[in-house]
Every structure is written in C-alpha cells, then in structure tokens.
Recover the amino acids of this structure.
C-alpha cells in the first residue's frame, strides 16, 4: 500500500471567507459612530446555528465511518522523517507507513489540530481532500481560550469528518474537562478522545459510552484491560508495532508490558519526538536529521538504546539494518529550512 500525495489549493479570498465564516464581524452603524452606549454583540449571538463548512473533499459516502474509527486498537503517532534541506522525506515516510501496516498498526490519522481555529479548519479541509480517514484535534494551546471557546473551536471542525479530540495538558497547559467532551459528544462525527490525564479519566469516559484511546504508552496496557480503553495512540509502536499490537489486542499480558516499559521509559526521557527520532535513525530507517529546536539524545542514551534493542530482540523492531550507535557528527541539525 502506498500513500498518495497530492497538493491541493484550498484557499479562499479573505472577502469570501468573511462572508461564509461561522462568526460574522458586527460593524458599527456609521450614523452611530460616537454612540458610546452601543452594545457589543457577543460571539454566541454571532454563531450561525447548524453551520456546516463547505465540503472540499471526497463525498461523505466515501468516508471511513465513525464506527470503524472507534474500533481501532492501535494507532501510531508516526514520526515524520526529513531530508537534509528540511523538507519531508516522503519516500522514507511511505516506507514507515508500510512497515506499520505490515506489523499490525490499524490507523495513521491526520493530526490537523492547531491553536488557531482558522488553521485547524484549513488543515482539516486539506487532509480530508486527499483521503485522510479521520482528524486528530488538540485544544488551543499557549493562547488558551475559555471553556466556551474550546467548545466553539471543536464545533467548527467536527462537521468536516470523523474526529478524535486530543487531551494532553502537559503540552497545551490546559485540560479539556469532561463537560467540554460531553457537550460535543452528540456530534455524529465525534469518534472519541485521546486521553493523557490517566486511568480515572479514561474510566469516567468509558463508563458513559465514550470511546477512549490512551495517550500514554506506559499506561496503555492497564487502560485497555482494566479501565475500558479501546486502545492506544502510540509513539512506541513506531519502533515495535507488532509487540504493541499484541499488547492491545491479545488479552491482558503483564509480562509483555513489563518487557516494554524500559523502552517506553527511554523514549520519553526527553519530550517526544526526540527519543523516537534518535531511535529510528539508529535503526537505519530514517536519515539522522533533526529540525531545531529538537536535538538527538546524548551518546550515553544512544548506547542504552542499543542494549534495549538487543534485550527485546532486533527482529521485533522496524527496519532490517543492524542497530548502531551514531556519533554526534552523524546527526544533521537544521535551523533554517
């Protein structure tokens, strides 16, 4: 199976966007420009009820169903490989996707979320237009919004296709509380939540019929088998998709979980994707290239990874080359691209 790459044009002119926007800017009446008592129209009053964005992708009948998305056990948060000039290495990416498919990963879903609603909408339009099966949407980060704004943000992207909401407060600085999820769960395109808060939150959702994928590899086994999670959206499966598939699909297996925990701990000793990019480079399946501000793990950690691979078994990892310890000079760090 190959990944088809297309370049599409999905821009509107500003005037057209403004006319079609779900939020309309309320202009003052020229005759009352000095009327200080004029009231500002609140955003809630400007929302068009049941607004749907214009479809710019495959017809809805050709879409993957939300129920099919809800059934996925193992989804890989796949690492994007780079060329020396900083562009995406599409050939290596295609190979990575095929490795995932061959070894049991069930989904690679477009991460089209943004802290800008406009950017999230645009990226999601493009993704569905080229065949994306579902969208992953994070809540607005850094420039955080209110809970009402969070709901409005998700309501702008949900009409476009099957959608997973991604809650990771350690990266966004803001939790997506349960009332927000419950308020959007009625959407026919709502598939579920990638949840990183922990088992208690997972259990709260699964007990009310909401599909949940663990966002924490070190917790995914127990979330799946003890707390009702459907599966995991995993970083570790970039490296050992077959083992992660077994962990999530073939019954409770604490011994396998224990065997994988040193690898998982190693992967997250620094923020993702530092560990996985270092690992894939040492496995010889991507070029050893980092786009700053990410830099490879230090030499001692790179040596530790080789030991972990040998302990688990090289045949369990993606790629066919021998695992090696790369030197500092083997890595290319790109600041401008």
């Amino acid at each position: 199976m190959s990944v088809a790459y297309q370049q599409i044009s999905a821009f509107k002119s500003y005037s057209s966007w403004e006319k079609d926007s779900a939020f309309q800017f309320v202009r003052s009446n020229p005759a009352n420009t000095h009327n200080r008592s004029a009231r500002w129209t609140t955003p809630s009053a400007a929302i068009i009820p049941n607004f749907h964005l214009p479809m710019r992708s495959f017809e809805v009948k050709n879409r993957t169903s939300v129920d099919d998305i809800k059934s996925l056990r193992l989804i890989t948060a796949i690492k994007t490989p780079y060329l020396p000039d900083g562009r995406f290495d599409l050939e290596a990416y295609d190979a990575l996707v095929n490795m995932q498919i061959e070894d049991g990963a069930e989904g690679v879903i477009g991460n089209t979320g943004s802290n800008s609603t406009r950017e999230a909408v645009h990226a999601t339009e493009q993704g569905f237009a080229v065949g994306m099966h579902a969208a992953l949407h994070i809540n607005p980060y850094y420039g955080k919004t209110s809970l009402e704004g969070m709901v409005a943000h998700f309501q702008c992207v949900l009409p476009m296709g099957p959608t997973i909401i991604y809650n990771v407060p350690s990266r966004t600085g803001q939790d997506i509380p349960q009332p927000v999820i419950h308020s959007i769960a009625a959407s026919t395109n709502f598939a579920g939540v990638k949840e990183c808060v922990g088992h208690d939150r997972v259990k709260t959702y699964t007990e009310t019929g909401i599909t949940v994928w663990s966002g924490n590899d070190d917790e995914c086994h127990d979330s799946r088998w003890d707390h009702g999670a459907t599966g995991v959206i995993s970083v570790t499966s970039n490296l050992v998709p077959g083992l992660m598939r077994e962990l999530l699909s073939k019954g409770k297996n604490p011994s396998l979980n224990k065997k994988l925990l040193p690898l998982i701990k190693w992967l997250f000793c620094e923020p993702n994707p530092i560990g996985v990019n270092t690992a894939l480079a040492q496995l010889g399946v991507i070029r050893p290239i980092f786009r700053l501000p990410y830099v490879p793990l230090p030499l001692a950690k790179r040596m530790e990874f080789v030991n972990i691979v040998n302990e688990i078994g090289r045949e369990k990892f993606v790629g066919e080359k021998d695992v090696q310890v790369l030197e500092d000079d083997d890595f290319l760090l790109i600041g401008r691209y």
